[in-house]
Design brief:
single chain, mainly beta, six-stranded antiparallel beta sheet, five-stranded antiparallel beta sheet, 1 helix, 11 strands, globular
């Protein structure tokens, strides 16, 4: 059994840690939800366990849930919504702060391979990332130099 990550981000520095943990994660189109009433966006990923040094050759993956609170609006660009098992590979997550002084809000941007992106307009940074499964052996280690993930 592997150690499960539980991370919280409330500022841009914290978000960099979550972005690193989710680099090269994959998600299916059907694994995202936005509840406008509660203003919570959720996504489930199969993330590569970069922190897991036990298996250096191929590594391991685990299921992880990302929750973003205080979401005002979600915009998708070049993201397949059908079929529900269409896969997208996450490259990074970043924060674009509001241009209004003293406003803690802005946009959380999830960037995917192939030019896809999700833009979440947020009141402030409030993200949780939690592993929700044990790990399993990855098919391959992501290779940025070879253009593969």
């Amino acid at each position: 059994m592997s150690i499960r990550l539980n991370l919280k981000a409330e500022d841009a520095e914290d978000l960099q840690v979550i972005a690193a943990a989710l680099q090269d994660a994959v998600m299916r189109a059907g694994d995202t939800r936005f509840n406008a009433k509660t203003r919570i966006f959720t996504a489930v990923f199969n993330r590569y366990r970069w922190e897991d040094k036990a298996s250096k050759a191929q590594g391991a993956r685990s299921r992880a849930g990302l929750s973003v609170a205080g979401v005002l609006k979600v915009q998708a660009q070049n993201i397949k919504r059908t079929p529900k098992d269409a896969v997208a590979q996450l490259l990074t997550i970043r924060f674009e702060p509001s241009q209004v002084a003293e406003d803690p809000g802005g946009a959380v941007i999830l960037e995917f391979a192939g030019g896809g992106r999700l833009k979440l307009d947020v009141e402030c940074l409030d993200l949780l990332l939690s592993d929700v499964s044990d790990s399993w052996r990855a098919r391959a280690r992501p290779n940025h130099e070879g253009g593969e993930a």
